[in-house]
Amino acid sequence: MNRFLAALAPAALLTVAGCAAPFQAQVSRFQQMPAPQGQTFAVVADNPRLNDSLEFSQYANSVSQRLASYGYMQASSPASANLIVHLDYAVDKGREKIRSVPGPFIGPRFGYAYGWGPYRPYWGFGRRAWVYGFDDPFLYGSSYDEVESYTVYNSELTMRIDRKGGERVFEGTAKAMSSDNDLTTLVPNLIEAMFTGFPGNSGQTVRITVAPPERQKR
Question: Torsions phi, psi of 69, nearest 5?
């Protein structure tokens, strides 16, 4: 990667990762949630090995706070809860993608371009795959697009809520793409998206935008 791309890449990744831009997630929900009337709930991991995890406990507390804000009450244990909330989350290993970025532009260019290929304007003149005129790339530097690769990660959070007897009352999935695979950043954003407009319209998939931390309401 040349110096131009090296300088451009970090800024591009920040935008995709959501550190400097809103976090976007696709949220699907199916629900028959009972109106809050003092029902108690407990949050458990779909993977039982995570129930003793401090990381999972932090995410479970975040879910509990949001359910409590809707009028449900946290139980002292799953055994005493009316509703069991099953939570799971993951991020994949990522996949490489390719994109074009403007090539380095060195010095002015003059003339009018003729030939074949896709049109691209520069300084009001035509630019095509084959050119004729005062446009020597070896003298002034090429303005053709260059290619760089980057990694995209897919993250997902799933939440199921069952009555104590086993009846399902909620199923939700929040999915996102980012250039960052850090679960400590992704999971809180996915939870925020899941509970935006909770419990939602059953059978509807919506795109939720979560503002960066400094822009979220406190």
Answer: -70, -20
CA distance 176 to 91: 9
pLDDT band with cut points at 50, 70 and 90 for residue 107:
low
Q: What is the pLDDT of residue 218?
A: 45
Q: How many CA atoms lie within 13 A of 54 on its CB side?
A: 0
Phi, psi at 27, each rounded to 5° = -120, 125
Helix 54-69 with 183-194: angle, nearest 10 deg = 20
What is the total residue count of the chain? 218
The rounded distance, in Å, linking the Cα atoms of 64 and 5 is 44
∠ CA 10-15-16, nearest 5°, is 100
CA torsion sign for 184, 187, 191, 196 is positive
Beta strands in 54-125 (DSSP E): 73-74, 83-91, 95-101
How far is it, in rounded angstroms, from Cα 55 to Cα 60?
9
- Overall average pLDDT of the 164-171 stretch: 93
What backbone phi and psi angles, to 5 degrees, belong to 13? Answer: -65, -35
Q: Is the peptide bond before 36 cis (omega within 30 degrees of 0)?
A: no
6 pLDDT above the threshold of 70: no
Q: Which residues contact 51 (CB under 8 A, 6 or more apart)?
A: 44, 45
Instruction: Indicate whether this model's pTM tops 0.90.
Output: no
